[in-house]
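Hello Y.,

Per our agreement to keep a running log of every chain we model this quarter, I'm adding this entry. I've kept the format consistent with earlier entries: sequence first, then predicted structure.
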Amino acid sequence: MAASDGQPNLSQLFSDLNRAGQAGDFNKALKIATKILKHDPHDEKAYHCKVVSMIQLGQFNEVIRFMGGNYKLSDPLKFERAYCLYRLNRTQEALEVIKKIPEPDHRIKELLGQVLYRLEEHDDCLELYRDLIRNSQDEFDEERETNLAAVVAAAQMWGGKQLEDYGLRESTYELSYNAACTQLSKGDVKGAEEKLQKAEELCRQNLEEDPEVTEEDIEAELGVLKTQRAYCLQLQGQNEEATKIYNQVLKSRPTDVGLTAVASNNIISLNKDQNVFDSKKKIKSATAEGVDQKLTKQQLRDIAFNKCLLQMYTNQNEACRKLARSLQEDYPDQDMPVLIQAAQHCREKHRQKAVELLSDHINNRPNPSITMKLTLAQLHLNQGNAGQAAKVLQSVGELRYKPNMVSTLVNLYSSMENIEGAAEVLDTTINWYKENDSSSPYLVQLMRASSQFKLKHGQAQKATEILEELRSMYPDDVKTIAQLISAYSQCDPKKGEQISKELPPLDPSFFSGVDIEALEKAAMTMGTRKKAAKAAAGVDKADSPVEETKDSVIVQKKKKRKKKGKLPKNHDPSVTPDPERWLPIRERSYFKGRRKRKQKDGVGKGTQGATAGAASDLDASKPQVTPSSPRAGASGTSQSAPAGASGGTAQPEMVGPRQQKPQASSKKSKKKKGGGKNKW
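Predicted structure for the entry above:
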């Protein structure tokens, strides 16, 4: 049919649209569908074809806007609308659209399964996939089984549920990977590692068969499997090998932001408070844009906690406090944000603030965790508050009845000299086991420990009551009877003597080959060696040593002669030795120190080579004056009156100007404290 003037040929356009769709040319199909709708805006087929073409081109936002303009034509296309919302990560809106479909077909159920899996509603998702597998049989059965295995693994790993074994196969690497995750959720780390190695082999075999797949594509597909295997190694303590695999995966630059985030976060957890610069780089990758759409809520929470811890280790105090408070609001049921804040207070030396923070958190929670209480008790102990620590430990529920906790409480009360409190802890624990778990082996251990504790602290009567009860429970237990005899010996010796008759006789074979006389003689050696030798050998001091024979038990030991000390050659026995002779000379009371040498007259004064008064000594025209000995402390240049002179004084000697020196000041010069650059 020929087109009229100005009107397009719709038949031809629909034919072109069909050929473009079959050829996969969705750009051309979109243009043709737009032409048809421009001519006939209410054409349902052209409208549907345009929506499908836009979805194939990844224009999900455009599809939502386009469908919002024509409710009549878009209402039948609920599947397409829900799919676009799912791809835009508007998962909750997609679920609401799907729920409005009255009779969903298989494709809608498949989409619903993906939506429920992303929303982590594992129970509903599990039932949906089980129904799909039972009621459908086509080429997608293997994919449905893979999805079912993924749901089972996620429900056990993230949901904490234990599900039955559905007998899923492990023929593909996806199924083997999900089976490994299931083993990991059960705590079988070694089994999970073996399945992951098998999954890597299957993946490489399957992809190498395709000639169009490159080695880079294979490594990209193996990235998830390797990262999970590295996680298994990390759980087994093989940190070096795990870190090596994580770095290999990151070096390949995976396009999956979720994979990059998981590997980076695990490296941060391995670094801890070391290598913080590398951790700061990795945390950027772990918190990149789009990560929240790829990971589970628990994975995102763990990454946020690690980021906060990293800020604490890098001393970003204000940022750490701010993020910790935000995390506490986002995750009110988690203890980690509060513990991080308490740790930050301790790092800043504000331990009392940490104690107050933990105390308020515990008091405001209906069921505070044991971790918080144990942390608070540790802080009290660090501050020396043993009483407060014991009070907190008494409130940890049934954990307080464990032997280790009972031992800790008894030691705390004993350190405070509160013997009654320690005994009460033991009695309360014994009563709890009698009422709740009378067959526990801990009951007998605690009863014995309680009796020993009370015997040690002078409560013998109470100890006998506990031991009598043990005796009634185990009448043939020799150890209990022996302990009971020991207890009665302190409070009722007659009763103890009576019970001692119940001890079974010793086996005669126990004494076979034992020489009683030798034992009695050996008992004498518990004294000094000399007395033992005399008693055994029966000899005097002057007798010779006894030779060892087969019948002798003890041999007298040879006496050692004391050597006389050597005296010095100039020793005078009539002179009393100096009592301070053992002290160093400088520390003896009579030590006066060394005398200082006085400088000779004229030495070092005047011109070089000259001595004081040398010119006047050589002058023959002047009379010679014989000076007397100078007084102690007198200057070498001053002269006294001549000895034997009567009625006259000596003339002062003339000294040249170059030999004249200023008189020394009478004040003593003070030494400078400290030293300068030229100090020796």
